[in-house]
Amino acid sequence: MSTNLELFHKTCLDCSKLTTNAYSSSFSLGINVLDKKFHEGIYAIYGFVRFADEIVDTFHEHDKKKLLEEFKSATFQAIQDKISLNPILNSFQWVVNKYNIEDELINAFLKSMAMDLERKDYDDKGYREYIYGSAEVVGLMCLRVFCEGDNELYLSLKSPACSLGAAFQKVNFLRDLKADFEGMGRTYFPEISFQNLSKEELETKGKEIFSEAKKQEIEADIAKDFDDALDGIQKLPTGSRFGVYLAYSLYLKLFRKIKKTPASDILRRRIRISDAGKCLILMQCWGKI
């Protein structure tokens, strides 16, 4: 590889790292404690995921459907050509080709992004499909990087990786209930309504008002995902184990704060962990895994 081409690829990967650091302090912290050989691959995946998410969540004054279709087309063209002038897609094609990340995972992710353009309300099937595509497959992409071509290890850790992605996404749904409904008009949890409907209308639609009992039901499901994920984290390769455990611990702390927050407050404010709190969790995680 020529020196100039190496510089181009490095610059693209730096763009993915910049994107990750700008958008997610939690994931940036987790990546920083991974073995350095994994940094670029995980930054490349996050940059791709972040840009797709921005299309559907942010670009309201533009034709989002057209932009997403163009992004999808450019993604697979980059993977085929093994090059792209879009730095985020060039980084992503590099990680896809290096670690043999399957098209199925990429297509499932982009399908979930497209669902955000069209669906505002989810039944159980749609809910599970959305979570798989928006979160579980991202965990599987990262797992491909961590396993470094060991397909047997990948298959053995596939299920807990999906559980971890699902836990993260469901926690995000709970944390962002207010913003998703008021800002985007979206309701991800099936059978829940935030509209001012009569009892008869709720029964007709098969919906319930978000209540403390319903919140606890959702939390029990999330707790199971966290439990299922932990066994897989403990079996990850050494260089990736602590970073994933830190991300798990950060989200678990956020989940526990949400559990302590009444359902009525969840609908009024966004629960978060302070930067100081994240640093404390980092210190508490040392030596635990």
Strand portion: under 5%
Provide the domain count: 1
Shape: globular
Question: What name does CATH use for the topology?
Answer: Farnesyl Diphosphate Synthase
Number of strands: 2
Question: Could you report the average pLDDT, rounded to the nearest whole number?
Answer: 91
Helix tally equals 14
Helix content: over 70%
Gyration radius (Cα, Å) is 19 Å
Which strands sit side by side, in order, in the main sheet?
1-2
CATH homologous superfamily name? Answer: Farnesyl Diphosphate Synthase
Q: How can the largest sheet be summarized?
A: 2 strands, parallel
Instruction: Give the CATH class.
Output: Mainly Alpha
Output the helix-strand order: HHHHHHHHHEHEHHHH
Global structural class:
mainly alpha
**First CA to last CA: what distance?**
39 Å
What is the CATH-assigned architecture? Orthogonal Bundle
Stretches where pLDDT is under 50 for at least 5 consecutive residues are none
What can you tell me about this protein's structure?
- With 289 residues, the chain is mostly helical.
- The chain has a single domain (3-285), classed as Orthogonal Bundle (Farnesyl Diphosphate Synthase).
- The protein has helices at 3-23, 25-32, 36-58, 64-81, 87-99, 103-118, 124-147, 151-175, 177-184, 199-205, 212-234, 238-259, 263-266, 275-285; strands at residues 192-193, 208-209.
- Strands 1-2 form a two-stranded parallel ribbon.
- The radius of gyration is 19 Å and the shape is globular.
- The protein starts with a helix and ends with a helix.
- The mean pLDDT is 91.
